[in-house]
Write a structure and sequence with these properties.
With 142 residues, the protein is mainly alpha-helical. The chain contains six helices and no strands. The chain is elongated.
């Protein structure tokens, strides 16, 4: 199971790094949204009266809000995955929570979330994160 634990740590770091890039794309879109709409109106693809002005002012704020949520969850996921690679119990819990959020991100996030939850909840995995006190294996009473 240790190989699976290492694999989910690495996969979560890679996946969350890609989602951070996606969040930066959303930030760029929100900053250039006005220019994009001006271009679409001038090109004739959208009429100036087709979209209410109020909606045009709300969309960049929504994009920034979504990007902020993605950034926070991704950073927490990377920290949790790094902790899982070091076999920290707190990191196992953090990565379980992040994995439940992954389930909503179809298709890659769902697959990674299911795999991470399966590995982190497995009865053979839990002892990897809870070593015996003092770092030694318990002695048998003979």
């Amino acid at each position: 199971m240790e190989k699976h634990v290492n694999m989910i740590g690495i996969l979560n770091i890679v996946y969350r790094s890609m989602t951070i890039l996606g969040a930066f794309v959303l930030v760029a879109l929100s900053m250039g949204f006005g220019h994009l709409m001006d271009f679409l109106i001038q090109s004739g693809d959208i009429g100036p009266d087709e979209i209410p002005v109020e909606i045009l002012h709300i969309i960049p704020a929504i994009l920034l809000f979504v990007a902020a949520i993605i950034l926070v969850v991704s950073v927490v996921g990377i920290v949790g995955a790094a902790g899982v690679l070091k076999k920290k119990e707190w990191a196992r819990i953090v990565l379980l929570v992040v994995s439940f959020f992954n389930l909503m991100r179809i298709p890659l996030g769902t697959v990674l979330g299911i795999y991470s939850i399966w590995v982190l909840m497995n009865s053979r995995t839990i002892p990897l994160f809870n070593p015996a006190p003092g770092g030694r294996a318990p002695r048998s009473k003979t």
